[in-house]
DNA sequence: TATGAATGAGCATTCATTCAT
DNA sequence: TATGAATGAATGCTCATTCAT
């Protein structure tokens, strides 16, 4: 009752392998409304009435679908994190070398951000999920899993000599993911750059950031 | 009356040249309280009563010193951006080559983030400043000035051959600044890494990200 | 949702023809409470909490039924003006000569004042309705309509020779209506004079004020 | 400390005999500010800060001159009522017959209203003077004195046969004074009619209202 | 005289949430 | 499923008033 896919069983599932998807995720109307509202006004700046009226449903109807305001946030957070986790898994599976895997992963992460800015930016509102909310662990677990997948790529790249990272690998990973996360704050779909362009540029910059040597053959 | 330095005339001024400062900025008690509250709960999640009681003052006293809640946000945003702008100016002035200048700049930005996580994270709440608030322009102007300073460093580095950036320079700059901004979401002062360590590591990663060749002499 | 007749569809309608009615208008409980409060303390002197507690409802319930404090004032103003407009229409229709029509009209106006002092006195609070409030025009339009009806009676009385008004007819009308409006400031139901007595006395004085000759047959 | 004439001993005194005065009363700056504010927003709609800022003085300065907000209201009410009482006394003394005396009295009352709409309209705010305020009695006493003067004129006019009032004399007096009081709600100095014109027209209508016979020689 | 700074109490309004139907 | 109607608690903000200087 408080999961993302109330109305449509598999509404939020991303087909695995489809990691270059650039379309927004399909979400039930209430979640789509909440996503937009949270993006524009933040969790605390959004009222439950905002959401209901955007969605065109009554307040009790909203409560029928979601336990409470936090439940809506949970549903969105889970929709976002599971989508990106699936994407990253597929992107890594689709690469043969650490270099290609990292490039693919950064690309799909940035595509995730640009494809659905609203949903991606909801990730920031995790701070407002009560720390004793049981779904929080689940979310954090998925995010950690994604980070571990990437950390593994970095470590294997170091081992193979593809990457040259003098300091703390985990801190560099934070650097890369931070850069990607911030895309939601400046990217505008109506702007000059397409999602694919940004994604490729970010992948290239990330490769340089981990010291991937330049002579190596291309990653596309 | 709505500026940051109500109680102490020069409270928020950072001594120029002091760009390796790792101490939090001094702020009047009401702003210090607001800074902590906004960091923990966000702008909309913080009530004016939260701020007043943290500051140990009454509600009307708070309003005597600040026009309204947005005015408090403005004061904090301006304190933060002017501090970082001063730091970046000094850091660039203190370097002889684009390479050293970029390294210094990233270092001071990360030190700014780690020295006062609370203040630095308030930058994110800019979204909640009414778009017709006259102070918004001022803030954005200062931020743009800082970005221009860094873009100039990047361009000069490209011209001199120090940096190798295949794509859009401005987008790479966004990448770097994004990575730095996100420091506030994961850094904890009680953790293993000191501000100086993180700052240096981020500077090094940033140099790699802009393709600064490794044989060049060090930047420390 | 912001009209006078929330609870009972036709709550505020006055049966036309019933222009000698001396009973207060029926109003939903929240409006009845507001009417009394506004009468006693004025619009600005009345708090929304006063109204809610007089009505025995919670604050949010009050807001469920009325947009805001101004909306409550609007509902009362419209209830009053439409009642008096209907009364005046009926009173004039019920008279054969200008003399009888004016007498009837003044009588019903004074009866309106004495029948529901509280409601009638709310008319004074029109000044506190925001000048850009769309309902203001509607109210003023109805009031003007009533004044036009009376001005017409006066003009016809002049033409027929029933009335002798040397100066500006409109100014004399203001004189008459001013005298009637002020009834709400001194009349007390527990006093010596009945509504009917005051109404007749005011009608007679008004006839004299417009120079209606005394030999004509009576109007009662 | 709470009377009208704090700054200037005789500031609010009207020279007796000058009952055709059409200039606003001189008032100290704080009272002039309060008068305008009360006129525009009413007593409860006006804040003490409104008054101070209109007057260009600080809040504590305002409190130095007046005990509190009610004290300001008292000062204005007394300024108004004593002015009108003096005028009415002089106007009656200046007439030889009841007819002329009533005409003069109505004229001066209307001139009082039009000469200083703001001050005259403050009379309505008497309702908001605490019923246990000692100044209230004084005010009401003066107003009663004025009404008694007029009632006496009416009675003498009845005795002499000048006036023909079938019903309650006191009620007719209320009628006349009501009409005059309401002048403040519609009169605008920038309008077509001069104060003198309105005053004469109201005097004539009042004479008719009390049944003063038409063949008698003029009252001007 | 004058005022900068302070405050307890109150303001209109909205919040997330619930319940009877 | 769906909703009209309700509410306790909180929101941002202002009130009249005071006091130390």
Automatic annotation (TrEMBL), chains A, B, C, D:
Residues 24-84 form the HTH tetR-type domain. It holds the Pfam family TetR_N. It comes from the Bacteria. InterPro entries: Homeodomain-like_sf, HTH-type_TetR-like_transc_reg, HTH_TetR, KstR2_TetR_C, Tet_transcr_reg_TetR-rel_C_sf. Keywords: DNA-binding, Transcription, Transcription regulation. Residues 47-66 bind DNA. This is TetR/AcrR family transcriptional regulator. It comes from Gordonia sesuvii. The lineage of its organism: Bacteria, Bacillati, Actinomycetota, Actinomycetes, Mycobacteriales.
């Amino acid at each position: 009752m408080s999961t993302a896919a109330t109305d449509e069983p598999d509404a939020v599932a991303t087909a695995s392998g489809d990691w270059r998807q650039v379309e927004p995720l399909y979400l039930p109307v209430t979640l789509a409304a909440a996503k937009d509202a949270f993006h524009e006004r933040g969790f605390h700046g959004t009222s439950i009435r905002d959401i209901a009226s955007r969605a065109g449903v009554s307040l009790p109807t909203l409560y029928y679908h979601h336990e409470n305001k936090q439940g809506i946030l949970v549903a969105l957070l889970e929709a976002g994190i599971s989508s990106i986790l699936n994407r990253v898994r597929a992107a890594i599976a689709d690469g043969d070398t650490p270099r290609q895997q990292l490039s693919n992963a950064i690309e799909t992460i940035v595509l995730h951000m640009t494809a659905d800015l609203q949903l991606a930016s909801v990730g920031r509102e995790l701070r407002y999920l009560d720390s004793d909310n049981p779904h929080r662990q689940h979310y954090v677990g998925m995010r950690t899993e994604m980070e571990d997948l990437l950390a593994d790529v970095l470590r294997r790249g170091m081992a193979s000599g593809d990457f040259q990272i003098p300091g703390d690998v985990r801190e560099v990973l934070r650097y890369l993911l931070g850069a990607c996360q911030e895309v939601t704050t400046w990217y505008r779909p109506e702007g000059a750059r397409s999602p694919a362009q940004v994604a490729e540029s970010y992948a290239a910059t990330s490769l340089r950031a981990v010291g991937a040597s330049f002579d190596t053959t291309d990653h596309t």
